[in-house]
Amino acid sequence: MDRVAVTFNAGSSSLKVGVFRLKDGRALRLGGGVATLGDRSRFTFRFSDGDETVDLPSGPAIDARLVSQVVDCIVRRGFDPVVAGHRIVHGGQVFDGPVLLEPKVVLRMEDLTHLAPVHLPPALAIVRAVRSAYPDMPQTASFDTAFHSSQSSLAARLAIPRELHDAGIRRYGFHGLSYKYVAGELRKHDPDLAAGRVVCAHLGSGASLCGMVDGVSIDTSMGFSPLDGILMSTRPGSLDPGAVVHLLRNNFHDADHLEDFLYHRCGLLGVSGKSGDVRVLLEDFHPASREALDLFCFRIAGEIGRLAVSLGGVDAVVFTAGVGEHQPEIRSGVAHHLGWLGLSLSEPANKMNATVISARESEIVALVIPTDEEQVIAEEAIEVISRHRL
Predict the structure, then answer these.
(1) DSSP codes, 242-298
(2) What is the chain's percent helix, strand, coil content, to nearest 5?
(3) What CA–CA distance (Å, rounded) separates 363 from 373?
(4) Catalytic residue chosen out of the listed positions 51, 55, 111, 144
(5) Which of 206, 314, 338, 382 satisfies CB 3.0 to 4.6 Å to 343 for a cystine?
């Protein structure tokens, strides 16, 4: 049987699973799938030799039964799962790289839940479910925040009293697994360009930007939480703290209701009043939908300008994730605001979602590079179990 790594990427309402063959210290993708949690649904694994579906149990909880059904599907295909790798959104100031999920490590992760109350609980639920169903299977964690641990104290600091900063209230940055993957792919495509000043725009349901030099994170748009930075599908991005205080005092009874509002009712959805899905808004001709998209592009361009200050200039802009990879209109809208910086796109290349989409005369190279967080999780899982000789 082929030895495989199984990767789990848990969101608040979805679960992505990847399957990777372990060969010569590398992770080769064999297949994967996505399940939407909360209702009875079908999990569809897409393998190179055909699909297989699993009927998931109903209910919102991630439990050992669900994990067991998913892993059993992998075993039926003749694979031997030897490690489970997990995406963990927040590692705080504790974790700056992938780790083996020993009991004491899980306890330290649970202590960080207050830093990411929306994202950490479902990920930890998956960890516990795997342990319950397969107690002998080693598990590893890959942290989104780890990629940004290279940033300077100046980039990480918020303008608050020092004792609060020392207690962990600081800028962390997220989407680090995506940025790590894209940095590696850019290095394969153009090593000289990858060694320069690159802004990567991860534009999906959650969205952020990262400024890198030689593939190392220098600055990023998200700060203390995944709410910060540019507006997203249902999150507002940067918001005046005075507005937050006003909302808490006048519109919401407690922090829990305000948190739900900020995570699920703002952003593109809030501005348009229709949807947080860029594809839906692009097909809608109501002024509010157009305004939401215009604001999205305007804020992305503004953040690229800010990151240009952190980097001392920009040599390349990379678009990635669902919107960044597949929506030429958004990329064009961003570039419209950055002509002063020397960025111009080739309209035919942009419409084709080509790898290089900048015009010949552009002073900045613009690229589209698909991301693959699960690939990074699998590679880091192999690295960890090799280090521990498991």
Answers:
(1) HHHHHHHHHT-SSHHHHHHHHHHSSHHHHHHSS-S-HHHHHT---HHHHHHHHHHHH
(2) 40, 25, 35
(3) 30
(4) 144
(5) 338
Contacts with 387 (C-beta within 8 Å, 6 or more apart), sequence order: none
Known binder of ligand: residue 337?
Answer: no
State the Cα–Cα distance between residues 126 and 132, nearest whole angstrom: 10
- 311/231 same-domain check: yes
Task: Tell me the residue range of the domain where 332 lies.
Answer: 191-368
pLDDT exceeds cutoff 60 at 38? no
279 & 343 share domain: yes
Task: State mean pLDDT over 130-149.
Answer: 94
Distant-in-sequence, close-in-space partners of 254: CB < 8 Å, separation ≥ 6: none
What pLDDT is stored for residue 97 in this prediction?
A: 96
3-state secondary structure of 53: strand
Q: Is 324 annotated as a binding residue?
A: yes
Question: Using one digit for the tens of pLDDT, what is the confidence trace for 89-107?
Answer: 999 999 999 999 999 999 9
- Does the annotation flag 101 for ligand binding? no
For the chain, how many structural domains are there in total? 2
**75 CB-near residues (< 8 Å, 6+ apart):** 81
User: Is residue 144 annotated as a catalytic residue, yes or no?
Assistant: yes
CATH number at residue 134: 3.30.420.40
Is 353 inside any structural domain? yes
Task: Judge whether 4 is annotated as a binding position.
Answer: no
The model carries a pTM of 0.94
Q: Is residue 206 annotated as involved in ligand binding? A: yes
Chain-centroid distance of CA 315 in Å reads: 23
- Report pLDDT digits (tens) over 194-223: 999 999 999 999 999 999 999 999 999 999
Residue 180: predicted pLDDT: 98
CB 369 within 8 A of CB 134: no
Cα–Cα distance, 120 to 281 (Å, whole number): 30
